[in-house]
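SAMPLE LOG
Freezer: B-3
Tube label: C17
Construct: single chain, 99 aa
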Amino acid sequence: MPRETLSRIAPGETSYDEVLTLCGPDPEEREQVSPPGRRTLVYRGRRVVPHRRRRLGWLATVHRWDVEHHEVEIELDGDRVRDVQAQVHRSRLTQPGTA
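STRUCTURE (predicted):
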């Protein structure tokens, strides 16, 4: 999820419906028993990133591939955002096409 999108989510101001409009309509949802009314929306994504090595002038070759796993957790208290946490986990891809 782009940082620009996350920067538009303001704790205490952004509503549940606004989060769905900004981030997408199908998050994983976790509901907490205590305190009542608290839940967390989870968005996950993945992308494969090439690392290039320059050869001649502007010509470059792919040196290796990394996989980035993105996870955003948006905690809600009632209908309003309480907190936003974003994590990126990177790992080296041994062979492209196996991500």
